[in-house]
Specification:
The chain is α/β, with parallel strands linked by helices and 145 residues long. The chain is built from five helices and six strands.
Length: 145
């Protein structure tokens, strides 16, 4: 039996000056994230769902520089488009997640995105050698697997 996180939606109004938020476990419910001072948002969870991605995409956190999410599926790339456009989090420089399938396609989408990342990580992901070479060329030692 895995750890569950549950509904964390009350955090945003209870701590309006929150700068760092990390959650661990599955079944997380973010609700509407309004966190104007938030610099780091992390959710080490099971597989990302459209609902979780929707909450993250709709987040109001103009100072966010670091986003770390759980298991990313290639089917969610379309839902992540607002983040990859650079408009949702214009100050984002650190992006990390775990790819469950088709890690090369996910990495390619990040490489083609408008994001100005300094650091990128895809944990526990099976990347092809050509993609690894592209990522290392772009991020050097700031790319982690």
């Amino acid at each position: 039996m895995g750890m569950t996180c549950g509904d964390v939606s009350k955090v945003w109004s209870a701590f309006p000056k929150l700068t760092l938020f990390s959650a661990f476990g599955s079944d997380i419910e973010f609700g509407e994230i309004v966190a104007p001072e938030l610099d780091h948002l992390g959710a080490t969870i099971g597989k990302l769902t459209p609902e979780i991605v929707g909450s993250v995409v709709a987040t109001h956190a103009p100072k966010l520089t670091s986003l770390r999410l759980g298991y990313m599926d290639v089917s969610l790339l379309g839902a992540l488009r607002p983040i990859l456009s650079g408009k949702t989090f214009p100050k984002l420089v650190d992006l990390q997640f775990t790819a469950t399938d088709n890690a090369d396609a996910i990495a390619e989408a990040v490489l083609k995105s408008a994001l100005k990342l300094d650091t990128f990580a895809m944990w526990s992901s099976e990347l092809g050698k050509p993609m690894l070479a592209k990522l290392r060329a772009r991020f050097g030692d700031k790319f982690q697997t």
